[in-house]
Write a structure and sequence with these properties.
3-stranded antiparallel β-sheet; 9-stranded mixed β-sheet; globular; single chain; alpha+beta; 316 residues; BirA Bifunctional Protein, domain 2
Length: 316
């Protein structure tokens, strides 16, 4: 019960932290028509039956992001949510098919604002020094490292200079391309094998300015359109969070969705879901400039209690 009692205290601390900063806690539907557009995330399918006997296909969401942005477009202001989310086919010491996501949005916020706020949250709900999975991290400070800097330091490669040229990236990294491996595949292999094991060890690391090809729902950096205003947070050998300065252009967002949907079908096939036209309509109505972040709450609870496996901090 020790891990679970600590989890409950962290949840209370999260709510106190955001309440003191003027955030409104919101709740959005879990069963939705469009669960997200991530290419590689598998979903859980379900069905709604109306009192009249009509049937509608629904899916359990992989993130509350679309719904929360609809609220932002409606003027809700600063908001956060501790949401249950579902990702089919996942399971490991760090992954569960059903888990809790802490997601929050800050209208008018920049990437620097969100980095500072995220670190303040860690300091508010965690001990000054945490040990988890055999790694000890101090919360006295943090480091920011661009993805390009991380590849230069830990891979020995010019990431942006070799963009979309898998043989060039492989040559600089000193690895062989695998059969059918493209630049993006190699990027993630090197990220997982060489970059992630080397960061977030002595202190939390914010890995910033991702290649534009991995922009997802982030806007491109006005100062360098080769990269997106996105960061991920790492501590104790774990990815804790993924954050964006949000894309607000409905035309560009629709185009990105169409590319992602086509790729998902090419890779995995099977039944798909409709485009979330309500979300795109919300962008057209006017999503305010904002920064948003999704943080794995169960992993935060692991840090708080020093758990080695995610199932140690799950109630059942």
């Amino acid at each position: 019960m020790g891990f679970l009692r600590r989890r409950a205290r962290v949840a209370a601390g999260v709510r106190a932290f955001f309440g003191a900063r003027g955030y409104l806690e919101v709740e959005t539907p879990y069963a939705v028509v469009a669960p997200g557009e991530e290419v590689h995330l598998a979903t859980f399918a379900t069905e709604q039956v109306t009192p009249e006997g009509e049937r509608r296909a629904l899916r359990l969401h992989t993130s509350p992001e679309f719904a929360m942005k609809k609220l932002l477009a409606g003027g809700v202001g600063r908001c956060f949510q501790l949401a249950r989310v579902w990702r089919n086919g996942e399971g490991s010491d760090l992954h569960a098919p059903e888990f809790t996501m802490l997601e929050w949005y800050r209208p008018g916020g920049t990437m620097d604002d969100l980095i500072e706020e995220t670190f303040a949250l860690l300091q508010a709900v965690l001990p000054p020094v945490v040990t988890c999975r055999g790694i000890t991290v101090s919360l006295e400070g943090f480091e920011c490292l661009t993805v390009a800097e991380a590849f230069s330091r830990h891979v020995g490669a010019d990431l942006l200079g070799t963009f979309d040229d898998a043989p060039a990236l492989a040559a600089q990294a000193g690895v062989r391309l695998r059969e059918g491996e493209d630049w993006e595949d190699l990027f993630f292999r090197l990220l997982l094998d060489r970059v992630e094991p080397a960061i977030g060890r002595a202190m939390p690391t914010f890995l910033t300015h991702w290649p534009a090809a991995q922009a997802a729902l982030a806007r491109k950096d006005p100062a360098d359109p080769r990269v997106a205003e996105r960061f991920e947070l790492f501590a104790c050998g774990m990815e804790l969070a993924n954050a964006f300065v949000e894309l607000t252009d409905p035309v560009e967002q629709r185009a990105r969705f169409e590319v992602d949907r086509a790729r998902r079908q090419a890779l995995y096939g099977g039944p798909d879901w409709p485009m979330d036209e309500e979300f795109l309509a919300a962008l057209e109505h006017g999503l305010p400039d904002c920064a948003g972040i999704a943080l794995g709450f169960d992993r935060l609870a692991m840090l708080a209690g020093g758990a080695d496996r995610i199932n140690q901090v799950l109630w059942l």
